[in-house]
Amino acid sequence: MAMKGNLQERTQQVMALAPVIHTATQNGLEIDRQGLGAVLFTIQAGVLNADTAVTVTLEESDVSGSGFAAVAGFSQAIGGADDGLRFEFMVPGEARKRFLRLVFTGTSTSALLAALATLGDPAFAPTA
Q: Over 80: is that where the pLDDT of 122 sits?
């Protein structure tokens, strides 16, 4: 059966990492999945230095603000040759904890990165 409503009513987009020059480990913003299922994380690389070696991983927790632990199988390497590229993590809603965040680790003298989370599969629509 087709879900009623338009795409805007069936999804919610939130910032997962505000655009930032990455020079050290950076925790992304906490994403609350309450009432929503799957999450698509979109990571956008801007201008990267040749020395960029960043790994993006996913963490989850049952509670807000603490208890985050790595989720196996969700890892993306970003290097100096990845200027302007987009990377995506599709996180199914099944068996995931309520709170998610991306973690950016590695080294760079200057790497512009940003991330957006698109939440979907709402229990109730519209989402906003």
A: no
As a whole number of angstroms, the distance between CA 23 and CA 122 comes to 36
Residues with Cβ within 8 Å of 82's Cβ and at least 6 positions away in sequence, in order, are: 45, 48, 52
pLDDT at 1: 42
In CATH, what number is assigned to the domain containing residue 54? 2.60.120.1110
Bridge-based pairing of strands 99-107 and 31-32 is: antiparallel
pTM to 2 decimals? 0.87
In a domain, residue 2? The reply is no
Q: How many domains does the chain have?
A: 1
Concatenated DSSP letters for 98-126? SEEEEEEEEE-S-EEEEEEEEE---SSS-
Mean residue pLDDT of the chain comes to: 88
